[in-house]
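User: Please predict the structure of the protein below. I'd like the answer in structure-token form so I can feed it into my own downstream comparison script.

Assistant: Understood. Taking the following sequence of 443 residues as input:
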Amino acid sequence: MDIVIQIFEQMFSLLIFLFLFTMVSKKKLTSKDLFLALSIDLTIYFSIALLMFYFNVQFLSYFLLPIVMVLLSFILLRRLNTTMIVFYGLFPVVLWNIFYRIILYFIIPKMGITIDSSSALLFSISDLIAAGISILFLKWLEFDFSQLQSENLYKNHQRIIQFTNLIMFSYFVLIQLLVYIQNEYGISTHSYRELLVIIQLITFMGIANKLDKRLKESLQEKLVLQQELQLHNMESYSKHIEDLYKEVRSFRHDYANILTTLKLGIENDDLKLIKEIYQSVLKDSNKHFRDRKYDVARLINVKDSALKSLLAAKFARSTENHVSLSLEVPEEVETKGIKLIDFITIVSILCDNAIDAAVNTTRPEVKVAYLSVEEKQIFIVENTISEEFIDINHIYEYGESSKGEGRGIGLYNIAKIIDQYPNISIKTESYNYKFFQTLEIKI
């Protein structure tokens, strides 16, 4: 019966830490993820129990929690770099441990309650209260740790995050080692643990404040850059529309002259003149407006001005690179089910990749479609490629790219964004000298 209770407590504790993990990493856990996490937790739990039984290595049990959480972080966030994976695995554990020991060392003694090895219920209550305080602390802090998953932001904060990992690792090892020494050898380490908790709390708050400040500065710089880029895109879009308007106006002027000449030919029954005008001008005039550059007018159905300007900019870039780009936006559509900034990031990467891949082919073509189908929005990018097909098995991993070593960051960033949205999926295909990306958003 005791083993059943222990297993239940272990699983319940894991669920609490997984909740804290999702708050920090913004990783949406599926039922499959939860089952995997519980399976790994119980496997490690029983493995350590067997080692303790056969080899009497009691100290392993003191490090069960961080081992499980870091391992789960490696599995659930495998696309991230190792530093961030360790950070997301350790942060919930250390945060909870600090509040848990503050309750045990400073609050409960002030209430006149004596703690000993038989106070199992008191430990369980302290567990829950520490978890609750950790949740409130994260909500009060309003710090979006998931922003650190951005490669650019991570580079700016890399040293701080590495230092944080070192501090968290050192704290947990020292605090658990001191507990182990007191429990196993009867040497009092209480005062050392109290001092360590206070130091770690102060350090933790300082690091969180520094990260918060630097992240806000980085995000502000990013926002300004995006606004400047959007303004530039809007200017390009306006110029493109203005050039098209001039062409149409010139064509209309020429047509007026042609119609005047036709009128004279008809009035004079000059069939030869009418035939000449038709053969030299009118016969192929409809081809003029079939040019793909007029597809940009279809952006009128895109209601998000930032997205509209971005697509117009990609349209202009394809023209500059002599890539034929066609747009299909058959009806009015407004981005839903995803933050606009995330959607724009995905669209920008997909379009840039498509243009870059198509530019060196014998028939450079890119096709873009943005559709609303029932309860879904679908964004499709198709482009020609120089190979018959591209191996798509590893293209979403960091550093993987058909463009060359170290350039595969775009699709990796897309994968990290999509990880935050359980309602979004992306399908990648490659065959017959073409490459297809289909982003599906359930709304």
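That's the full token string. Residues 287-291, 401-408 have pLDDT under 50 and may be disordered.
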